[in-house]
Amino acid sequence: MSSIPVVARPAPKQTPLPAKTRVELRREGWSRRLPFLPAFLVTVALTQLPFVLTLIYSFTNWNLLFPGKRSFIGFDNYTRAFADPVFRQAAVNTVVITATSVIASVLIGLALAMLLDRAFRGRGIARTLLITPFLVMPAAASLIWKTTILNAGGGVLNWVLTPLGGSDIDWAGHHATLTVIFVLVWQWTPFMMLILLAGLQSQPGEVLEAARVDGAKGWQIFRYMTFPHLRQYFELGIVLGAIYILQAFDQVYLITQGGPGTQTTILPYFLYLRTFRGGQIGFAAAAGVIVVIATIIIATFALRLVASMFRQEPNR
Amino acid sequence: MSVTKPLARQRVDVDRFRPPLFTKLLGSSITAGTWLVTLIFFFPVLWMLLTSFKHESAAATRPPTLFTGYTVEQYRSVFDSGILPFALNSVMTSLISVGIVLVLALPAAYALSIRPIGRWQDGLFFFLSTKMLPASAALAAIYVLAQELHLLDTVWVLVLLYTTMNLPIAVWMLRSFLLEIPQEVIEAAKVDGAGFIRTLWSVILPILAPGMGACALICFIFAWNEFFFAVNLTSTRATTMPLFLVGFITSEGLFWARLCAAATLCALPVVIAGWIAQNKLVRGLSLGAVK
């Protein structure tokens, strides 16, 4: 298996029956569709309904703090959102934090995957320990990082750094963006490692052996064989990692509260603030609509990337 | 591998240039490096565990104490502070949502693989696309909707949202498992006169059981760890484990040991579930695309 096998089985050859009537064909179609419908309808209802409502609210001046006043105000929320410096800052922060975290976790994940791709004593245990950061509840991990590890006074990291000259650094306060990225990378590296490790292990061993016999050096094998082979695994890891990290909330809420100032305010946190601290349903909805439109534009490219894995699939 | 002879000769050549001792040393140092990196990655978890068994006075000292009197006092105080309602809410929201997800996802996955609907690719990508929409964008609407339906601060609002969140993952994952079942097995059942339900129950499900188990564990992981909706849509009655944890936030080095004990208890179920499912983890996380 050199490619990611998302391949559907070719349609079974149907014995040529006497031409089916149209009614029979339609019944056949519905009997196929029936098992699909419950999940489909539930998903449509639960994902699309809130977004339709979001769209409607985005044209109102609804504020939870002033429940009486509620009227349609056209595109006012949108113009205000575009003019809002905090919203723009949050968008930039989201892109910076997501991109940095995804890239860093892919690179570290690749290094770890390569280390784990060779036989050594206790490899299973090492893998088990390495995936643990991904499993620990993000809220719990955030609090542990914030207190016992990164705290200025009693955190372990500052103690480790003392011989290097640094000490009593208030990480969450003075290096807030770095702290958030650090915790996200710690959490998502195991995810990337697992995907890339699966990619490494799906390499046909005989071909690598043959290349070695032909005198290819280690880095040549990596550059011309392993790397191209891993390409779709990279794509998959990046797309899925970005989907999840874009929605990161726990780390910011629990470690930096979006601060200092608005330095680590990312979009989910911004929308939370406007909805619950400000009660600005209308404004938050408009900002949400803008976020969704931007996401759709980006996701279209991302989906095209993932869809390339379907190239070899037969149509039926 | 029919050319064993030249291969063996080549190996000897390589060995002459690279003495075994050097290779061995290189190998052990890479192994040592691997373990070092592994322990660095695992350290925060280990530290959480160690700190949770310390006395408060030893939890935030500098230099950090390793050999100190260990105690279970923190766990006792965490249990005394009313963890039970939170744990029950977490168990309920996770288990009910996982159950609903499996019941809905299995037929859908079947209709996208074994007996596919007309435009099954569109169906598949519809599910994936819902994962790409940031849920936070609809937070205001979801809040208002939950309020109108009197679902605020109930486990049901979380059950509904976690079902939506996990359904695409489960559909993709189960589909990839279903595709591995040989078509002949299903055809044979059909020839023997088994209907859809019967085929599903006595032919497909037994083969699919391990895959379903892994899928359930992965959905459980995401549901149990979810924080965003839990913190925004519940307040007193339906609060889940992550919110129990928030109650332990204190300023400047106070009660870290107790916080660590609470965090350990919150993280434990999922860490164990993940360790059990680890061989299928990558498949679930990649939505079945990577095996």
What topology does this entry show?
The complex is a heterodimer of chains A (316) and B (291).
Chain A: H1 22-33, H2 37-57, H3 76-83, H4 85-116, H5 123-135, H6 138-149, H7 156-161, H8 171-174, H9 176-201, H10 205-213, H11 218-245, H12 250-256, H13 267-277, H14 281-307
Helix pairs in contact in A: 2-14, 3-14, 4-9, 4-11, 5-9, 6-12, 9-11, 9-12, 11-14, 13-14
Chain B: H1 4-17, H2 20-52, H3 56-59, H4 73-80, H5 84-111, H6 120-132, H7 139-148, H8 155-178, H9 183-191, H10 196-225, H11 228-233, H12 241-246, H13 256-276, H14 278-285
Helix pairs in contact in B: 2-13, 4-13, 5-8, 5-10, 6-8, 8-10, 10-13, 10-14
How would you characterize this protein structure?
- The complex is a heterodimer of chains A (316) and B (291).
- Chain A is mostly helical and 316 residues long.
- Helix content of chain A is 68%, strand content 0%.
- Chain A is built from 14 helices and no strands.
- In chain A, helix 4 (85-116) packs antiparallel against helix 11 and helix 5 (123-135) crosses helix 9.
- The two termini of chain A are 23 Å apart.
- By secondary structure, chain B is mainly α.
- In chain B, helix 5 (84-111) packs across helix 10 (196-225).
- The radius of gyration of chain B is 25 Å and the shape is globular.
- In chain B, 47% of the residues are buried.
- The interface between A and B is large, with 113 and 112 residues.
